[in-house]
Amino acid sequence: MIDFANGSVFKLNPCDPGELYPQVAPFLIQGEQIVFAFRSVRDFVVFTNKRLIAVNVQGITGSKTDFTSLPYSRIQAFSVETAGSLDRDTELDLWYSGLGKVRLEFKRNVDIRQLSQMIATYVL
């Protein structure tokens, strides 16, 4: 499983969901659609209408990949931190029952409020 406590794992930039669809399509259930997609150099995260899927590409060759599925139904609380003048990144913290806190860090150009509204739609 991905080490979500290590914030440097995920410094995410927005990307086109269609770019990542072929890699996550085998894991999606009927009616599940990608709403937002973000990627770092090798790893990526997709937010669907049902869950968050975090993908960690492992090893030098990248042939081993970990897919972690985090359903919205298990979120107990969440918070967002907007970018400031000195700290230019935004953060999303999700507290999952049985797992604990999951933190994702995004580059400044991510609309964290829109992402927060989407999560609230599925959690509340």
Automatic annotation (TrEMBL):
InterPro entries: PHb, PHb_sf. Residues 4-123 form the Bacterial Pleckstrin homology domain. CDD domains: PH-like_bacteria. It comes from the Bacteria. This is Bacterial Pleckstrin homology domain-containing protein.
